[in-house]
Amino acid sequence: MPSLPIPIVVALVLTFLCIRFAVRGRTSTVFLALVAACAVQSVLVSLAQYYGVGAARGLQAVTAAVIPPLAYLAFQSTARRDPNVAKDAVHLAGPVAALLLTITMPAALDVLLIALFAIYGGYILYALRDGADELTRARLEASDTTLLIWRAIAVALLVSALGDLIIAAVHATGETNATAWIVATMSSLILLALGALSLSSSFETAGATPSQLKPEPPPPDAGSDPEATASDEALMARLDALMHDRQMFRDPNLTLGQIARKMRQPVKAVSNAINRIRGENVSRYINGHRIRFAREQLRDGATVTEAMLASGFNTKSNFNREFSRVQGQSPTAWLATIENSDGR
Description:
Blueprint: H1 6-24, H2 29-49, H3 54-79, H4 85-88, H5 93-104, H6 109-127, H7 143-173, H8 179-198, H9 230-246, H10 256-263, H11 267-278, H12 282-299, H13 304-311, H14 316-327, H15 331-341
Helix pairs in contact: 1-2, 1-8, 2-3, 2-8, 3-5, 3-6, 5-6, 6-7, 7-8, 9-11, 10-11, 12-13, 12-14
């Protein structure tokens, strides 16, 4: 029995992921559209490369041109804002150009696709140059993970551009035997990146905000950056008071954008104040509050899971990682140390 071509396997897996996340209802429409577009692209690649379907070759370039703009819109929806028809209509230019070139100048399609994948991939990497604080809509619990995933997506787009460049070079030499292998490999790399993205809880809607319990004292000042200003100090004092009085950190959906809106300050001003005064990014600042709160919950007899959920974490992996970062040991080991020191 002949084996299925790699792009068909890719399409099946992507289709399964798309249906799975659509049924769960916790993934944005633009991301589902991105996965669906990649699934369609994989089918067309297989039909064109392995089964010689001529019509698929024409459609293949158009669907390929849809993927980079959708990746960009997915990035925007998880990092900055919801898609907006008026603002985002410009991103139709690539697919429309691909359709026109398919009809009028097919030889120019390679140049267009290479440019689209390289430009969008490069832009996402550039937009993330300052780290996780650029992801103002990402949940702060796992914004470092979200940052890594988006960088992987950007690299996948750049690798795809490189793959298209290699394919164009192979065609130019008249050697086409390796083309199917190159296309299949590039499709698999895209699948790997999108699979990592789709499996991350960072892009899902979390549960409701937990109820408020007793306040914790604000964390001590870790030492200011020489570039810190009086306005940074004042803003940081307000933010510490907000965390102390409102315990915003206990909201598992908390984002940098929400904090900035609550304080009526620009996002950049909030992140800069935390960077300069505390020497850490927003995610670590918030997670530090969460770990200190969880520590008090554990002292009061809560289980590790209860303390994790009460402090604003959704997953044990993130909780354990951040607890170890702040305390230098796992929650279980820390609790055992406390119990031994108390003579329990």
